[in-house]
Automatic annotation (TrEMBL):
Induction: By heat shock. This is Lon protease. GO terms for molecular function: serine-type endopeptidase activity. Its main location: cytoplasm. Its EC number is 3.4.21.53. Keywords: ATP-binding, Cytoplasm, Hydrolase, Nucleotide-binding, Protease, Serine protease, Stress response. It is found in: Cytoplasm. Pfam families: AAA, Lon_C, Lon_lid, LON_substr_bdg.
Amino acid sequence: MDDRNDNLILLPVLPLRGLVVFPKALIHFDVGRKKSISAINAAMKNDQLIFLVTQKDAAENDPDITKCYSTGVVAKIVQVIKQPDNSTRVVIEGKFRAGIVTPVFDKNCLMAEVEPYPDKKFKHTSEQLGLMRAVRLEFENYVKVAPRVPNDIIFKVASCKSCGELADYIADNIVLDYQAKQTILEELDQTERLDMLLDILINETYILSIEKDIVQKARDRIEENQRDYFLREQKKIIEEELGEDDNPSAEAEAYAERIYALELSEETENILIKECKKLMRMPYGSQEASVIRTYLDTVLDLPWNTATKDKISVTKLRKELDKSHFGLAKIKERIIEQLAVTKLRGSQDGQIICFAGPPGVGKTSIAQSIAKAIGRKSQRIALGGVRDEAEIRGHRRTYIGSIPGRIMTAIQNAGSNNPVLILDEIDKLASDYKGDPTSALLEVLDSEQNNKFVDHYIDIPFDLSNVMFITTANDVSQIPAPLRDRMEIIELDSYTREEKFNIAKKHLVPKQLEKCGFTAKEVKFTQSALYFLIDFYTREAGVRTLERLIGNVLRKCAVKKLEDEQETFKITDKEILEMLGHKKFTTDKLPSKDEIGTVNGLAWTSVGGELLPIEVAVMEGTGKLELTGSLGDVMQESAKAAVTCIRSHANSLGINPQFYKNKDIHIHAPEGAVPKDGPSAGITMATAIYSALTGKPVKRDVAMTGEITLRGNVMPIGGLKEKSMAAYKSGIKTVIIPKENEADLEEIDPVVKEKVSFIPVTSFSQVVPIAIVDVPVISEKQWNAVADNTVTTKSENIRQ
């Protein structure tokens, strides 16, 4: 077939995406679409000619004839290569322009009748030659600003003979979008085509020159920055080696501005400015300059003028404390009193409070609740095991790694100059060769001195008078007297059975339910279950073990919920026994009947009160006194005093006065492995001795506590609240107490008062008829007469 035939030609059509092919161009591209491959195959069967046309929309995946431009190029397929990825690569040579006349339906590929538009050969005019020269010149300008253009393209441009050929070749080999190239392809007039190309070249050259300038400026700026950075780094290293700094005063001036902004006292300000001047004279990288910087940063970060505003409302404060802690009425009242005074005065009264009591009763937590209730920030300082004075006062700056003490660090962390500082376990402080931290606290906890507290590291006075100090201790006797004198001791007694029950019900159970992912509707503890836990699985002053046991029960419920899909749980005594195993402790039980020589005593322990039975056996002998049951020195002396009291009042008590000659007395306190001490079992021992000597039984439902003198007077004791609770739990109906402890009955739990009768006594003569079965009342006159006679006899013996 003739390449220049003017007749219509039926050819397969190959749509191109974003690609325009010009006549005489030799290109290759990959073909992937099924219809395109079919068109290639059809062309290969018929003279290898194919019509290449550009799609109007490059994103169209399956275009028809109407979605392609009408003008394209008739090309010859030079080579077809099958690629490893199943695509087809074709090498095509453009022949001449052509236009679609009539689309022809074909189910395999696009077909159309096309009309050739061959370029006509004619003699160039002077205007056309000048235009060609202008285009070549502009192309040279384009080459200067465009990315690398191959030399063979430049050579070919110079050798093109006709306007049309020159326009087509340049358009084919410069970077243009396919719409612009299509416009040039569609222009059949060679002169107009070349003129159109000249406009495009001028525009592209201008745009590329601007782009090149921008890129060059950006590159120059980056190179300059890199150069500056490199030089600065070199300069810094050189200065560090030489110990020099280009502007030492700028940093010092910044510190000085911060110092003046704080508006400190003149003395403090002068000290800090002097440090700034030192910093100004020092090389930047020196060790001493680093120390001064750290010091200034630490001092300036302290809250010199920052304070939180107290939100003191007595009503709200009382509600908040009642909500967070059950009981502790004395402590709450004392705190409310102090804060009420603070609000009326407008400043703090400076009193230091010390919460003293056994572990787990809520000393630290109530201190934190106080801070929360009044809107102050709080910091806890653990003093247990601290034995270095510098922990309190800080280290001097002359030492490497020196830091402020715990007091100033807590102030800094709190971010205000009036926080609540909780000094925890103040009785656990120790001392060694590094100093006595207890003595260091004397200034801190003295409201008359702490307004100018000087930390060794800070080395300037800081006002601690606005700080609310609350200390905690387990054993007040371990606190040195001078330090103890600076604090108001508030005793926290161990919780009673009823208090533990209410704490568990209102606080511990809800807290553990939340921790274990349960709601109050899913798990319910019966009252008896909580009492069961308290009575048979705990022996503690506080409630920590009780909380752990509740958590243990709930964790076992969580396992059951997941394994057995049980939705709700009702915790009773039976469930507690199944989950936690056998009872760890047993309750004190009363004797089944009235017994001779056995009396129910009451003892105080760190975990509450206990029933302490005292047994006495009287045997024929030579007057020996045997004491067993791990009795301490004070308790042994009480036993001897009780024997002497009985002996001196033998006649009024109806006892043979010679019993000390022919009777051996053995006093025993059961649970011999448990050490026991204290004077409060005096009347208990005396009553047991009386019962054993007379053979009269002691009432089983009577318990007693009180110290006894040689004359038979009953002296006051401590821990009545805990002892009364022990009596209540054991089923005691009557408790004999010293008359001087009658005022302590106000602190007794109302439930205990309702069930137990308390009888105050002043003399052992009043104890006997209450505790012993069928014993007549001993008149006061008869009892005192015997006692006076005893004293007189002793006085006469002394005079002799």
